[in-house]
Amino acid sequence: MRGTHFDPHPRTVLAPEVPLELLSNISERATLIAEQGADVLLVLPFNRDVMATPAEQYLRQLCMALPLRELWVGEDFALGRKREGTPARLREIGQELGFSVDTVAPIEVDGVVVSASRIRDLLHAGDLGEARRQLGRDYWLRGGVVHGDQRGRTIGFPTANLEVAPNHLVPAYGVYACWVQIETGAHAGPALLPAVTNVGVRPTVDGSHRRVEAHLLDWNGDLYGSTLRLIFVRRLRGEQRFASLADLVAQIEHDVAHTREQLGAQAVTRRSSIAPTPAT
Description:
The chain is 32% helix and 26% strand. Strands 7-8-11-10-9-12 form a 6-stranded antiparallel barrel. β5 and β6 form a beta hairpin. The chain has helices spanning 10-14, 26-35, 48-51, 55-65, 87-97, 116-124, 128-135, 151-154, 245-264, 267-273, and strands spanning 2-7, 40-45, 70-74, 100-104, 108-109, 112-113, 140-146, 160-163, 174-184, 193-200, 211-216, 227-238. The protein has 280 residues and is of the alpha+beta class. The protein has 2 domains: 2-108, Rossmann fold (3-Layer(aba) Sandwich); 138-273, Elongation Factor Tu (Ef-tu), domain 3.
């Protein structure tokens, strides 16, 4: 199976002045597509020249790079200049160029069409359960481990500070029970490791920038420069400001215990059902 994908997201070209939080970057989407069985992914650049290209001309160019036999699109899909490449028009072009065109109906959950905007709202609210139902999987993101201020190490809870692009959506600020896979680096492997993850600005220590920091339970090692896949399972609590570091440490100890409780009961099923494939 072969697929194509536009990058950057067309909305960032059509309306660059309107901020768009991405549910996944191109690397993450490539992994998700591969996990559905695709063996080739063609990433197509999207810009205003592409927008101005007639649908037939664009598909002729595409067929030169990726011989098409079947083209699957959404029911409301449109390609090319002035959105002329509707499914009906694509079928006409396909008859001439030798490929068929089929449409995929919108996916519904409880009678409501699944949409990226709905999923964004759920994640902003920290509702991982409903977001999981809408996505059909746990929400996850990938980030490289970079140096932070190492404050967690000084209080006994060292964390991996993930570099996440500013326009990549992260769930509501708070503390989460997560699975972590080390995808690249000296400790890379398929194992899913339990972690307590903090998303937010760390008000207790007067933080001002968004951080995503994962404390891997019962694990030691240097992760700097590694890439982690962070799988959000359960929101434990919202972000809080504590009166002292001692109060913060006591709460983290509670968060660790809560994470063990949440993930321990699900370890067998989750390790077998959501074990991710290492990125290539």
